[in-house]
Design goal:
The protein has 499 residues and is mostly helical. Helices cover 62% and strands 3% of the residues.
Length: 499
């Protein structure tokens, strides 16, 4: 029998969740629909709602309920909904009570204002136009960090918001392994000659891009009654509620990057879509961490979307959509082109090898900013130098350099490492999936993705946040985070380019 106090806790948490989802919808509208003139008012609205949500969540009554439910938690099965909800809520509550609600409002308000300033600054390639907003964001993050007492590194506090329980030192160790393996691999492939991808850089009708992307998504599991997709400057996914998945992408006239961005965002969306309905609307009802989330976006973008068998089904359909561009290009040439390893400026367009170097340089710069070893005004110069060191390319302007991502404008310090952590985790999960589904390639060649999606839902998505990220990874894969399978996958797939 459920404890009445547990039911009271659920009711209070449902109210907080509803406020948070309202703020999510305001964010989506800001990035997709809102006219620029609404930026200031929207920032105030988001700031107000986030403050109210924080006040409701840190209410001492919730703390009292959590204390009174300790015995109930101990007598419940660890895997049960009840024990998981109490355990996860207690961790969230202990973190949240350290941060004044006014500061939460200030953080969200400043992020909303900075995001509105980021778009014009990027279009004009004008870092100075965004710099004051970044300085405000950084100052507020310093105030946020001061609410905690990090045992090891300051950056741990921010990282924990995206990858709970992960330490900066652990990320650094994984990234050092990646650098040690991927820099030589990049050089090996580069020294062996170039892959022709010129046919990917032509004019592609945007309506046709959208139609083809939707054909792919529908094969993956997209339906009109639970999903939508819109155009935006920087692709993202969000969900204002269960059964309401909002994808965005960016259709460019001169390449097909939107297709891979769309598959990437589908990976985020299907993770949220697959959370068990019984835990929807609770603190358990979302992906457990950004690293696990990114593992799924990279799975659907790369392990599936850049898979040879995937294109055996879809390439004839792409040729029919763009006969002038691909009619004379054979499938093998196309496959090699979309998997080309080549250092480039833009993170979201980067190949599977060099992508991680984009992330590592951001991870390093963020630590320097947070530890006040790097001033915001010096960020473009530091960015350009790091890009040249790791990727050997020269940054022509800030739009294609430090302004290319919206994350820092949105206050997302601590977010970037999760992209490469997701790459690593994705292959660990994929290897486990292929042990159960031994004919994955044959399924893809027939355009069948349902069994793969349902395996992922049953083994990962349904759990939501019931367990910690590390517990979740171990339950799915049987091991802790390990970079070796990912490096092995890259070498087996991409090293032949060096032959």
């Amino acid at each position: 029998m459920t404890d009445p106090k547990f039911e009271q806790l659920q009711q209070r948490l449902a109210e907080v969740n509803n406020l948070t989802k309202a703020s999510t919808l305001l964010f989506w509208d800001q990035r997709v629909m809102m006219p620029p003139g609404g930026a200031s008012a929207r920032a105030e609205a988001i700031g107000t709602i986030s403050t109210i949500a924080q006040e409701r969540f840190v209410d001492p009554a919730i703390g009292k309920l959590l204390e009174e439910l300790r015995a109930f938690e101990e007598n419940s099965e660890y895997d049960s909904f009840e024990a998981s909800l109490i355990r996860v809520t207690r961790r969230d509550y202990e973190k949240a009570t350290r941060v004044p609600p006014e500061l939460v409002g200030d953080l969200n308000r400043a992020s909303a204002v900075a995001l509105s300033a980021w778009g014009p600054a990027k279009e004009e390639s004008n870092f100075e136009a965004l710099r004051p907003y970044l300085e405000t964001n950084l100052e507020l993050r310093h105030r946020y960090v001061e609410c905690f007492d990090p045992a090891d590194e300051t950056y741990d506090v921010l990282l924990d918001n995206y990858e709970p329980n992960m330490k900066t030192a652990d990320v650094r160790q994984i990234f050092e392994q990646l650098k040690e393996e991927l820099v030589p691999l990049m050089q090996e492939i580069g020294d062996a000659g170039d892959v022709d991808d010129s046919f990917l850089h032509q004019e592609f009708d945007q309506d046709a891009q959208r139609a083809f992307s939707l054909e792919v998504l529908r094969r993956f599991g997209y339906t009109d009654d639970e999903w939508r997709i819109d155009q935006t400057q920087h692709p993202f996914m969000t969900t204002p509620g269960h059964g309401d998945i909002r994808l965005t992408t960016n259709y460019r006239r001169d390449d097909l990057s939107s297709l891979f961005a769309t598959m990437h965002e589908f990976g985020h969306g299907v993770y949220e879509w697959g959370v068990d309905e019984s835990i929807a609307g609770t603190p358990l009802g979302s992906g457990v961490s950004l690293g696990l989330h990114e593992s799924q976006s990279r799975t659907w973008e790369n392990l599936i979307g850049r898979n040879r068998s995937f294109w055996r089904y879809f390439y004839p359909r792409l040729q029919a959509t763009f006969p002038g561009q691909f009619g004379s290009v054979d499938e093998e040439a196309f496959y090699r082109a979309v998997n080309k390893v080549h250092p480039s400026l833009i993170r979201i367009d980067a190949d599977e090898v060099t992508y991680n170097l984009h992330i590592i340089l951001r991870f390093e710069l963020e630590q320097e900013l947070i530890d006040e070893r790097l001033a915001v005004r010096d960020l473009p110069e530091a960015w350009n130098a790091r890009i040249e060191t790791y990727l050997g390319v020269e940054v022509p302007d800030d739009a294609r350099g430090v302004l290319q991502d919206m994350h820092w404008a949105g206050g997302g310090f601590g977010y970037f490492p999760t992209y490469s952590l997701g790459n690593v985790i994705s292959v660990q999960i994929w290897e486990r999936l292929k042990e159960d589904l031994d004919d994955v390639d044959e399924r893809f060649e027939r355009g069948e993705f349902d069994d793969v999606r349902e395996w992922l839902r049953d083994h990962l998505y349904r759990m939501g946040r019931k367990f910690s990220p590390q517990e979740t990874i171990e339950r799915v894969t049987g091991s802790r985070i390990d970079a070796k399978p990912y490096v092995r996958y890259l070498r087996e797939k991409l090293a032949p380019q060096a032959v």
